[in-house]
What we know:
Layout: H1 2-9, E1 12-19, H2 26-34, E2 52-58, E3 62-68, H3 78-89, E4 96-101, H4 109-121, E5 125-129, H5 140-148, E6 155-158, H6 170-176, H7 195-210, H8 214-217, E7 220-228, E8 234-243, H9 246-253, H10 258-275, E9 278-287, H11 295-300
Parallel strand pairs: 1-3, 1-4, 4-5, 5-6, 8-9
Antiparallel strand pairs: 2-3, 7-8
Helix pairs in contact: 7-10
Amino acid sequence: MEESMERTDCLKSGFVTIIGRPNVxxxxxMNQLIGQKIAITSNKPQTTRNRIQTVYTDPDRGQIVFLxxxxxxxxxxxxxxxxxxxAEHTLKEVDVILWLVEPSNFIGAxxxxxxxxxxxxxxxxxxxxxxxxxxxxxxxPEYIDTYRKVFDFAEIIPVSALRGHNMDIVPDVIFRYLPxxxxxxxEDVVTDQxxxxxxxxxxxxxxxxxLDDEVPHGIAVCIDxxxxxxxxxxxxxxATIVCERDSHKGIIIGKGGAMLKKIGTxxxxxxxxxxxxxxxxxxxxxxxxxxxxxxxxxRNFGYNKNSL
Length: 308
């Protein structure tokens, strides 16, 4: 018993939120830290809509619970307001804030808005300058100096989440600022997201990749059924892609159903990797006009502002 108590006393565990403007690489960073794909990624802004918790466990040091949040941006509808409120709300709940920015000598209005939020949070902030693989190495100290002048960061780390550059030191730095305490989750847990939620997000990711810029912002994905066939290594999944306009429905289905087939094929590959089982995926498309401005429709699709 005494040995068990000593082990708990030397562990550190805490919550860390990953914030930043849309499309800065937050989900890529989190997937890289966890070592597997949990959050969906794309090169389109506002890919992440909900707060997603993932768990990094080191049996000898403790546990980091990461909160990947939607990008902080100027909201254009109720869904946008919901996304921003999630991101800003988490600043008050965590032990450490990871702020992800792109390498630049210019600090724009979006970043300055985030700085004002951080000043009110009174939480250690680790600045991570992402995508340093896209700029000349000798320019990186300039970018660090630019940000050091505007806020008192606990640490500043240049990284490339996509390439894995400098990512191995990130857990070490985070653990310095976490409180001592027992782990929140079992050691084999990597996310609090139910399988259905991850499957829905994987389908939405493949739609984001395949569709034109305007259409993806107006889609949601509902899992109608997930059922494993008895006696067979096969999962039947029925899902509906919801869009806002009839014209979008036509684009999502594509000529002769080609686009919907492409989305389904790409999603099935990822889902089979996730579930480690063969998948029979069937997709439908429905129109729900202006659902992003309807509290009821948003709740139906898993975006509930009352849960903040």
